[in-house]
Design a protein that fits this description.
This protein is mostly helical. It is built from four helices and no strands. Helix content is 76%, strand content 0%. Helix 3 runs antiparallel to helix 4. The longest helix has 31 residues. It is elongated.
Length: 126
């Protein structure tokens, strides 16, 4: 049930989510309900969907939630680039976040590949 706690990708995504909250604290007030909120929600969505999928009983559901997590990571990547262009964050901050997102998305893809391989090795049900 708590197998997500053992996933390195979940821990990385959790840490990144906290970092996103710290970075967005310094956004202009006009962005509290705009870009800052969007980035926070996308950041929280990544580890949350990894955890929810891992807690499901079927690998197919886990695979599905990993896809949602990856989509949220791509969303956060885009929002980070927008924040950098608007000069709400520094290049160093955006590089750190996008680099972490690259690692997280790669780990998610590898995990999905493992689930696919595991599923293909199972004998067909009669």
């Amino acid at each position: 049930m708590n197998r997500f706690k053992n996933l390195v990708v979940w821990k990385q995504a959790l840490d990144l989510s906290v970092e996103v909250y710290r970075v967005t604290e310094n956004f202009p007030k006009k962005e509290v309900y705009g870009l800052a909120s969007q980035m926070q929600r996308a950041g929280v969505s990544v580890p949350s969907n990894i955890a929810e999928g891992a807690a499901r009983n079927h690998d197919g559901e886990f695979y599905h939630f990993l896809g949602i997590a990856c989509g949220s990571a791509a969303e956060l990547y885009t929002q980070t680039m927008i924040a950098r262009e608007l000069e709400y964050i520094t290049r160093a901050q955006s590089d750190k976040i996008t680099s972490e997102l690259d690692h997280i998305m790669n780990r998610i893809f590898r995990l999905q590949e493992q689930l696919e391989t595991k599923h293909k090795k199972r004998p067909a049900r009669s």
